[in-house]
Amino acid sequence: MGRYCEICHRERPHEQFSGKGRGRVICKRCRKRIPKAEIQRILERDEVFGYYCDQSNISAKNSDRLEILSQSPRPGISELATVVLEAAKVAPHRRRRREVIGRERPDLLEELIQCGLEEPDAV
Prior knowledge:
Strands 1-2 form a two-stranded antiparallel ribbon. Helix 5 packs across helix 6 (106-115). The protein is elongated. The chain is built from 6 helices and 2 strands, in the order E-E-H-H-H-H-H-H. It folds into 2 domains: 1-34, no CATH class; 37-123, no CATH class. The chain is mostly helical.
């Protein structure tokens, strides 16, 4: 049983990670190959996707973090965080989130589909 790399999304043996604490969730191979800016972009993108897709409630603290990410200098991250922040204002709870957003803000639902957060054919 190894550890999970958050960049390549693979489980690797413990030897493939540096021994500098548990916060290091990036394997040595990814750390060498990928520039730091790209690693930061991937981690921020996964964080925003996690707020929308994995959590049952987008809390006030999550919304504060999305505010910070929406002012990010990385254009893809700032746009994605802005869309998720708008979705959190409309429907913070995951239960029937798509239905509520589709009813109240169909334009926002289209943006979520374009970002890849929602499936276009899901009902």
